[in-house]
# Entry
Amino acid sequence: MHIASYLIFCFFWGALALIRMYLTESTHLGWLVWNLILAFLPYLFALAFMTWKGIVRYFAFFFWFFFLPNSFYILTDFVHLYRFPEMIYYDIVYISSMAFAWMVSWYASLELMHKYWNIHYHKVLSWFFVIGTIVISIIGVYIGRFLRFNSWDIIDNPSQILHEVWLLILSNWQIWDIQDIYRASVSKMFEVGAMWLWQFTLLYSTFFLMVYAYLYHVKKH
# Structure
């Protein structure tokens, strides 16, 4: 059911993408499909964790946790609406269809892990796991959106991530100091309306926790 729902939204988004290309004669925002693919990976790794045995399942857990922020990240892609004001009402649905596909993947993957913790640990601990996972993922979204790091940078350039996050901590999470010239230039696009990390984390974590708790409650009943 999860995969079917995800594919329905993906096919709808794909149709909208083709129509958008025809209307604008460009591929602008077409690259968002990459974010959609990354958002689906956590669900695949969650399935792997639930089915694999031995030490390899913990590798699946690592990669699930590693890629999970991508499933939250798509919601922040609404910042691109300002770039094409002539298509703004079309792009609201265009990006929303991706966001709903992301929500299916995000909820489904976290629900699988939540069930595992319910079975093997106390139910209260399982909810602490859910809350902690959401909070850490939102911090990852903040680092990705404003520091402009990608998931693979954790493996490819971990020292740079640690250095810039440390500078962010020293500045009381109020400003960021990007060392790379290209990332710094891209980050300028998102400075307007930017929030401090604690504000961003509190706002988005609360929202996603409410969404998850509601969907979890509805599915149980």
